[in-house]
User: Fold this.
Amino acid sequence: MPQIINNNLDNRPQIPDAKYKVKDLFNLNIDMNVPGFSNKNEYVPEIDPHYVFDRDTTLSILAGFKFNRRVMIQGFHGTGKSTHIEQVAARLNWGCIRVNLDSHVSRIDLIGKDAIVIEKGSQITKFKEGIIPWSLLNGTALVFDEYDAGRPDVMFVIQRILEVEGKLTLLEQNRVIKPHPSFRLFCTTNTIGLGDTSGLYHGTQQINQGQMDRWNIVSALNYLSKEQEMKIINKKVKNFSDKFSKEKIAFMVELANLTRNGFKNGDISTLMSPRTIITWAENALIFEDIDYAFKVTFLNKCDEAERIIIAEYYQRCLGTELPKTWIAPLGNEIKTENVGK
Ligand SMILES: Nc1ncnc2c1ncn2[C@@H]1O[C@H](COP(=O)(O)OP(=O)(O)OP(=O)(O)O)[C@@H](O)[C@H]1O
Ligand SMILES: [Mg+2]
Assistant:
């Protein structure tokens, strides 16, 4: 990872110097131009050439870049929220830094602190900027992942920069920072700021409504269409269809959809995300066995009481009975009344 603090930026232009056609860059049928940079710098993410862009999510992110809107992408885990922002930035050559707002990130981490540094051979105390002042000054896009898991003290620091003209006052330094014209702010969340209503996202908090109000665009990215999901797996796990078959991918996505419906109906408490299917396909190549890969990728994460239901879904989609010892590893009796509920 590049060292971001006190690093001299290259001499790239301060504001976007290129215009890109959305049609060319994102393979979406949208007649729109977006600004970007003609050259990359070290903060521009790597391009994933196989990335499949979702129309609505991409449009929201592009509005964020083009019109300086604050954009929140919300959705279940593993649906491609963080990578969508990163991949849009990668194609616009826009520097983009992701910060995970877990419960250990503190105000000082974001704002900065006095640190002892060595300059010209002697030790001196110097203010070392945190990631927020650094991004504000250098005009990168800043993405707060797991925004709904942030600590309250951290959330109030962010509140200030949510306003487009929001200047940041560094009390520690008696200094006011004006955002660079290319500074952009995005966040991703699993909840919509009302706390965890699904039981899936422990550690998330309610988001203050004053803060929610400052996000200009809230876009939901839950699950993609079956075709889109199959396309992603096909492109991402390239050797899978050679080793097994393309048909299998359709069955795997079907199974994932059954777990999602089962979750919605309250039959099971774990569901398969697009990330789970990608990992399953990758593990199938490692173990050369789709069933065993399923066991270690998903089944072992499920509540034992629910495994029978999942085995039933599996049988329906892939036509294989999973071994009984996988379903009840501790030898507990399998309650058949749960089957096919
Ligand atoms: N549209 C897509 N095209 C290609 N790959 C995708 C797509 N969506 C998701 N993926 C892949 O799925 C995985 C999960 O994506 P990502 O980390 O962006 O999900 P997320 O929604 O941010 O998840 P979380 O809520 O857990 O943070 C990544 O490996 C990513 O490359
Ligand atoms: Mg994410």
Summary: The mean pLDDT is 87. The pocket of adenosine-5'-triphosphate (ligand 1) is lined by residues 51-52, 75, 77-83, 145, 188, 190, 232, 236, 274-275, 278 (CB under 6 Å).
